[in-house]
Amino acid sequence: MVEWTDFERETIQKLFENMNYEEVGPAALSRCLVVYPWTQRYFGNFGNLYNAVAITTNPLIAKHGITILHGLDRAVKNMDNIKATYAELSVLHSEKLHVDPDNFRLLSDCLTIVLAARLGRAFTGDVQAAFQKFLAVVVSSLGKQYH
Amino acid sequence: MLSVYPQTKTYFDHWQDQTPNSPHAKKHGITVMSAVGEAVSKIDDLKGGLLTLSELHAFTLRVDPANFKIVSHCILVVMAIMFPNDFTPQVHVAMDKFLASVALALAEKYR
Hints:
Largest interface: A-B, 24 and 19 residues
Largest sheet of chain B: none
Largest sheet of chain A: none
Order of helices and strands of chain B: HHHHH
Helix content of chain A: 55-70%
Shape of chain A: globular
Distance between the termini of chain B: 26 Å
Structural class of chain A: mainly alpha
Strand content of chain B: under 5%
Radius of gyration of chain B: 14 Å
Structural class of chain B: mainly alpha
Radius of gyration of chain A: 15 Å
Shape of chain B: globular
Number of strands of chain A: 0
Helix content of chain B: 55-70%
Number of helices of chain A: 9
Strand content of chain A: under 5%
Number of strands of chain B: 0
Oligomer: heterodimer
């Protein structure tokens, strides 16, 4: 069981309450595809991914970015049992989508950077620590059902 | 880095104040970042240009090279904070690639 401090709980709730899903989701996913091009392997039928401009303006990628970001909502609401919350999604990512779990970490890093750019100085070391801890728990839970 | 990855504080036991905003931490941050800046001018031969620094990290400081990834990530986050509009995905990938090359050159003398 993961222990959360009051600061961490409040920080995560606040970050997601103020989250602009329509901007952050697409920005994080498209950034991941540009910075770590091998992640494009999972998006074969998403259309034009030939260069950074194509990726960042691709509507299918944008829509999927929003979907993924909303996927975190469940964890935000169930911070005390993220592992169980994501058991089904973990199976989906391993059995059906065949995603290398290391990619979850790559996307997390991009999400952190996108949020940092949006929040500026408000994204302090402590806020970043809470956010990265949250994402690490999500990433670990998503990787749990792989075998 | 010291906040988000507290295990990195173990390398700074010799500082009285290991908090992220201490004068020691700030001064050292400038030292590290200046060295990264200098590496830019040696971009075509990082291995040669960073030889002495690599020896320092390998034999004297003995920093686990896994930490190079950690500090690189934190540098990228700060860049995003300081340059929200300029730190586009294209700039991000270039910086990430450069920092990874620096890390590789720094790890050269380890074994």
